Amino acid sequence: MSTTIDIQNYLPHRAPLLMVDLILSLDAHSVDTTFLIKEDNIFVDNGVFIEAGLIENTAQTCSSIVGQKYFVDEEGDVDENASVIGFISALKNVKIHALPKVGDTIKTKSTLVSKFVGDDYTLCTMSCQSLLEEKILLECEINLFIQKTISVAQ
């Protein structure tokens, strides 16, 4: 997929916890996203996007690969009623080289290492990298658990 996509089509996150703006490319094995660091972001401290923000940005980027299964049907239509819950089950080999500042736009790239799909859940391991232009900010491997939940009508 080569056109930009609104990340909200693939994740349950909404402001103020949404840490990805657009999906630049997405297929079954990799994803590239962008995110503009704004001053009012909950992970900004003294003008700097802190480590927890980089990790959450990475997790949300990774989730979009798995999110395709739950949020978009076979015809490519978005399921407005999809409901999932996800957890970071492990972070491995985390290296944070630098932190971006307010006004910076970071690009995050993730590649699927392995995936196990159950009836209503998915476990996956992703290799990740966040960059500011060509400068590497973060490198890590992340394990995610994502499960479809049942929506309860109110």
Automatic annotation (TrEMBL):
It comes from the Bacteria. InterPro entries: ApeP-like_dehydratase, HotDog_dom_sf. Pfam families: ApeP-like. This is ABC transporter permease. It comes from Flavobacterium geliluteum.
